User: Which sequence fits this backbone?
């Protein structure tokens, strides 16, 4: 696929088929992710491939947060919201977490975060090129200390930048409308 087409066709995909996605499918795409621009070549990223047991634990935190957004724990419908959210999460064919080192120097920390986002975008374009689909999620569980613990990440020195849901698209959503670039352009003398 042409680069321009990949940029145009990349969508956030919310519905996946049951076709599994393995690490072997993803490794070549990660090789492209790490070619992102990166000031000082700090290589601040870490990629965490979520296995079934980890997905199960994550699903409980995810479902808890989703259900609590609707009702409190004692409400009779809590269990139902919880169960439906957990089932939805467990149906995601594959999950890749992308974390970033948090440098003590705030300028480097910001550059490293930016570089990690560039790596994610490289990855998403490569995903599109391969006919796969992804959704970048920043659901609050990525900031939950239990999740950082579960992933073996030190909360003082690492942050999760993206939780990427991956799979073969069952449905490609239409492109959301965007303003033309000219609307954001300032011409300076
Ligand atoms: C940093 C970041 C965080 C995002 N987090 C979420 C999220 O938590 N939930 C979600 O549904 N979409 C999330 N998205 C996807 C955006 O909603 C999506 O990119 C936007 O609707 C435009 O659609 P498109 O990606 O198909 O062009 C996130 C995107 C970015 C860049």
Assistant:
């Amino acid at each position: 696929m042409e680069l321009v087409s990949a940029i145009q066709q990349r969508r956030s995909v919310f519905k996946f088929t049951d076709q599994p996605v393995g690490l072997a499918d993803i490794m070549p795409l990660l090789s492209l992710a790490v070619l992102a621009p990166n000031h000082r070549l700090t290589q601040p990223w870490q990629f965490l491939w979520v296995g079934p047991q980890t997905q199960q634990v994550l699903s409980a935190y995810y479902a808890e947060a989703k259900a609590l957004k609707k009702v409190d724990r004692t409400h009779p419908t809590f269990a139902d919201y919880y169960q439906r959210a957990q089932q939805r999460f467990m149906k995601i064919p594959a999950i890749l977490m992308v974390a970033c080192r948090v440098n003590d120097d705030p300028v480097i920390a910001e550059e490293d975060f930016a570089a990690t986002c560039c790596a994610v975008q490289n990855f998403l374009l490569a995903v599109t090129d391969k006919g796969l689909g992804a959704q970048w999620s920043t659901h609050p569980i990525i900031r939950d200390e239990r999740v950082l613990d579960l992933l073996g990440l030190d909360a003082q020195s690492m942050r999760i930048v993206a939780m990427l849901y991956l799979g073969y698209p069952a449905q490609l959503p239409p492109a959301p409308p965007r303003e033309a670039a000219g609307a954001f352009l300032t011409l300076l003398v």
About this structure: Residues 3-51+94-170 form a domain with the NADH Oxidase fold (CATH 3.40.109.10). The CA atoms of residues 119 and 165 lie 16 Å apart. The chain has a mean pLDDT of 97.
